[in-house]
Amino acid sequence: MKFTLAQPWFLLLLALLPLAAWLLGRPGRPAAFLYSSVQLVGTLAGASRSRAGGILAAWRWLILALLIVALARPQLTQSETSIKASGIDIALAIDLSGSMESEDFELNRERVNRLQIAKDVLKKFIDRRPGDRMGLIAFAGKAYIAAPLTLDHSFLIQNLERLDLHTIEEGTAIGAGLSAAVNRLRELKSKSKIVILMTDGQNTAGKIPPRTAAEAAQALQIKVYTVGVGTQGMAPFPRGYDLFGRKLYVQVPVDIDEKTLKEIASLTGGKYFRADSSDTLRRIYDEIDRLEKTEVEVKRFVQVKELFAWLAGPALALLLAEIVLAQTFWRRLP
Questions:
Q1: Cα dihedral 21, 25, 26, 28 sign
Q2: At 333, is the pLDDT very low, low, confident or very high (cuts 50, 70, 90)?
Q3: Angle at Cα 60 formed by Cα 59 and Cα 66, nearest 5°?
Q4: What is the per-residue pLDDT for 172?
Q5: Which ranges of 163-307 would DSSP assign to H, the alpha helix?
Q6: Which residues have C-beta within 8 Å of that of residue 33, sequence separation ≥ 6?
Q7: How many CB atoms lie within 10 A of CB 288?
Q8: CB 92 within 8 A of CB 122
């Protein structure tokens, strides 16, 4: 930790305080009063000045000094942290369409939907790749940036956990999701740029065809890994609960546009995976781990703790106390 002042020139005002105190404390011309008899002021001849006035005056100068130092904005700063990055930027595009609610996967021996298993696998993948800059794209009927590309993986995981079904317009805009991911990577200078696009359906929404987005990725040398999530054939889809609180299911067909997903992967130099189990889904990340890496040094952050309140607070408290004392215990005589 390092102590610094954000606006140190305010401290110049401290040099003016002694001059101001001297000017205000200079004796002026003695006042002259006419009395009909000196006996009227005889009792004041031995009176001495109370120390209260001097204490309160010094108190005010202390308050003013504290406020001036506070204006200089003292700070505790932590030195910039340098970390090693892999040189690989990854955009994770996740389908949040209603069909992702199908519960054809198991996690810890419990039936879970496709989004839940996707979150579990992605969290572990993110933890395994601390040197990669990653971002998060969520898409259904439209595509949205859920998290910008970052090396702060705790922030990334927090945003991943917030993703939920039925929060975006219904539909499956594969082209829009891929396009949003490509745009996140377009301007970045990195050794490798990768998109991992996960979906369980066909392109049914959005104005950008998947092939058009794939061609843009190819032109920008962005490799796209596509993942079709879902078992073969039919999948159980929840349809409410019975009188005993048990979940009811209907069987719905698994309709993944594998042809388009394979085309996207092939066009960009990536690979298509059919994820019908957690183990299959994790193979994608084993493949990415084998990619060439280039370590570069990156400045991550500077942590600053402002100390303004630690000075301004006591100054205001002293000012309040001075006002109270001046009007009560140390009230001046008229």
A1: positive
A2: very low
A3: 90
A4: 95
A5: 174-186, 210-219, 258-268, 278-289
A6: none
A7: 21
A8: yes
Give CA–CA dist 309/321, Å, rounded: 18
Q: Which residues contact 106 (CB under 8 A, 6 or more apart)?
A: 112, 278
CA atoms within 13 A on the CB side of 82: 3
Rounded Cα–Cα distance for residues 170 and 228 (Å): 18
CA dihedral sign, ordered 177, 183, 188, 192: positive
**Which residue in the block uniquely carries the two structure tokens 């009560």?**
328
* Fold designation for 82-298: Rossmann fold (3.40.50)
- Among 84, 83, 128, smallest CA distance to 293 is for 84
Q: What does the buried/exposed string (b/e) look like for 247-274 if buried means 16 or more CB atoms within 10 Å of the residue's CB?
A: eeeeebebebbeebbbbbbeebebbbbb
User: Facing residues of 236 across strands?
Assistant: 251
For the chain, give every domain's residue range.
Answer: 1-23+50-79+302-334, 82-298
Cα distance between residue 110 and residue 103, in whole Å: 10
- pTM score of the predicted model: 0.63
pLDDT reading at 30 higher than 80: no
* Residue count of the chain: 334
Q: Which residue is associated with the tokens 């159980």?
A: 236
> Within a 10 A sphere around the Cβ of 159, how many other Cβ atoms?
16
